[in-house]
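Structure tokens please, single chain.
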Amino acid sequence: MKNIKVLGTGCANCKTTLKLIEEAAKAKGVEVALEKVEDIQKIMSYGVMSTPGVVIDGKVVHAGGVPSRDTVDGWLSGGGV
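Here you go.
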């Protein structure tokens, strides 16, 4: 199971990113532990200055803007992480 955190203070792009990851995981049948991190101190602890940020298994894989569906699919397949 992949542990995925979406970092963001609740902006529309952060919500879109969270939903995109949920939908992609369900479509691929991949089990994920998805967490929304809104605390600015926790977000900054990952070194992310532009949100949304995505952290998979403790590693920042994306920051700033909504990732593409292809990018998310790649993360869930084990690539790009």
